Amino acid sequence: KEDVGIPMRLRELGMTEGQISEAAQQVVGNARLMRNNPRPATAAQLAALLHEAF
Length: 54
Known about the structure:
The protein has 54 residues and is mainly α. Helices cover 46% and strands 0% of the residues. The protein has one domain. α1 (20-28) packs across α3.
């Protein structure tokens, strides 16, 4: 975490809030990523998750 300098939020990795929706759409459109997901998710659900991590 903070003691070793690991980024904790997506914004710390350079992601902007405006990129969240597009990122969620890209994940939903990538069969390999969705197939490896432990449960089905919609773009809206993924966007909500990304907002929490932002």
